[in-house]
């Protein structure tokens, strides 16, 4: 189990609890009461810490190395029915963007999302979850396929941004993201988007234009990462915590500004502490969203989506 810096009081208590239990197992001393006291204190400490998380602490949780990634969610949701599809039919297959068909219950969905790696080798293989233009073109190809066969689309967003390398720009990174945004606004099938980790910049929006956009509780969604914002404004990463607060990037901030449609609760301690519970919450959210969207006609669906995004950022004086 890996701990973030603000979780160290929890680690200390868990270490004490392990030692207490070990003493009870290795000796005749009755440590039941002592262990119960530590457990009670551990529970209250955990609640206190996670009740008052700052924006930066939520950013840290969204990047937790044990946090489930896109393919973890897809495999858990589809229970062996997922069939991955590859390639953009132009350049190649972007490993940072995954997609394919799968079922939740009896309903088929087209799943699309950014995939990060678990160790140095897989992180390089997945390009740290940063897609090239061919990744966004693959995503659009799959969305168009879903539209053709009247299959709803589920996008799972977890990226520090689109890949900013020279070769990505040469192959039209900006155009690929802009094309996706345009096509998604008028796609004639329901789109459900969920931020499961990091939701940074156009890299996230490139697959994030949805009829229902939801965020897991400890995720973030904004135009720039706190570190990059800090480096631009203060020429240093030292102010990343201040930047995180100012960016209003948490799920609660986004909901308050009416930029998302819902927040999916996570287990106490984050999605990684109880993966099964997190998967179940996401599954229920997808089912509920699809039930609502499936009752709309195609014309009404597209009209509502276009109006939703056209109204964002409009203020009445």
Describe the structure.
The protein has about 325 residues and is of the alpha/beta class. The chain contains 14 helices and 8 strands. Strands 1, 2, 3, 4, 5, 6, 7 and 8 form an 8-stranded mixed beta sheet that branches. Strand 2 and strand 3 form a beta hairpin. Helix 1 packs antiparallel against helix 2. The protein starts with 7 loop residues before the first helix and ends in a 7-residue tail after the last helix.
Descriptive tags:
15% strand, 8 strands, 317 residues
Summarize this entry quickly:
With 317 residues, this protein is α/β, with parallel strands linked by helices. It is 50% helix and 15% strand.
Question: Which SSEs are present, and which pair or pack?
Answer:
Elements: H1 8-26, H2 32-51, H3 55-62, H4 70-78, E1 83-84, E2 97-104, E3 107-114, H5 120-125, H6 133-148, E4 153-159, H7 166-170, H8 173-185, E5 191-200, H9 201-205, E6 212-216, E7 220-222, H10 226-234, H11 240-247, H12 251-256, E8 262-264, H13 275-294, H14 298-310
Parallel strand pairs: 3-4, 4-5, 5-6, 5-7, 6-8
Antiparallel strand pairs: 1-2, 2-3
Helix pairs in contact: 1-2, 6-8, 10-11
Largest sheet: 8 strands, mixed
The low-confidence runs, each spanning 5 or more residues with pLDDT under 50, are: none
> Oligomerization state of this entry?
single chain
Our count of helices gives 14
Summed over residues and divided by their number, the pLDDT gives a mean of 95
Gyration radius, in Å: 21 Å
- Termini separation (Å)? 51 Å
